[in-house]
Each structure stands twice: as structure tokens, then as C-alpha cells.
């Protein structure tokens, strides 16, 4: 179900997630920097791999602009670790197996996983852009072009 409150200019919903090792991540942790929160259907599928590698390859550009990249899917933590290791991903992947964050952002697809949607969140936690149609190969460029325009 789409979340109609999630529009450009609106506050992005916070989330807290605790990894198996006890490490905690919260969107509030990143106030003061931009966040690219990208949702994707599944680890190790062609489109998701291309998108993740696009973001990986542009990580230095994101860091220069103080943009934290966070990927979210319903895959398990083990699946994320394998995916991240296999493709040398250099950003955080959150395993939203209970689909709490996916639901909060209204990006659930008909198959019960996340639709491919990205939110760019500013330093104060407001949504400054939403990509509902993502070009997997060019996603990093789409985001960087938006920031630099």
C-alpha cells in the first residue's frame, strides 16, 4: 500500500534496525548528511546486482557529497552478507525480513517484496527526491545528476 505522506518536502519516516551482532542503525543517526535510501526486490538478481554495483562504483562521489547509501530488501542478513561480499559492496544493506521498513515507506510489491524505489533524504530528514522508475544501470548517475543540478 502506498504511503501518501511520503512526498517530496515531507519528513521521511524514521526506522530502527538491529543486526544479529547487536549493531543498531537508525535513520536519525544520519541527520546532518544526505541519505539515499534505496529499496530493491532481491539480492543476486540481475537488475538488483546492476543497481548495487552502480552505487558501489560511485561511492567516492557520494562520500564527497556526504551522501550515505543504504539498501533495503526483505532478504535475510546472511543473504545480504553474501551479496555484499560477492560484489564488494561498500554501503549498508538492511535485511527487512519482517517488511516493517518496506511497509512504512509504502514500497511493497504484489509479490511481497520491495518495489525498486529510491528516496533521497536531506540533512534534516526531509525527502528531496523520489525515484519511482529507477534505471538500474544509471541509478548512481541519476542521483548524482539530481544533486549537482
Task: Briefly characterize the structure.
The protein has 5 helices and 7 strands; from the N terminus they run E-E-E-H-H-E-H-E-H-E-E-H. It has 149 residues and is an alpha/beta fold. The strands form 2 sheets. It has a 5-stranded mixed beta sheet with strand order 5-4-3-6-7.
Your description of this structure?
With 149 residues, the protein is α/β, with parallel strands linked by helices. The protein has one domain (16-148): Glutaredoxin. Helices cover 29% and strands 22% of the residues. The strands form two sheets. A five-stranded mixed beta sheet has the order 5-4-3-6-7. A two-stranded antiparallel sheet has the order 1-2. The radius of gyration is 14 Å and the shape is globular. The mean pLDDT is 94.
Which keywords apply here?
alpha/beta; 5 helices; five-stranded mixed beta sheet; 149 residues; Glutaredoxin
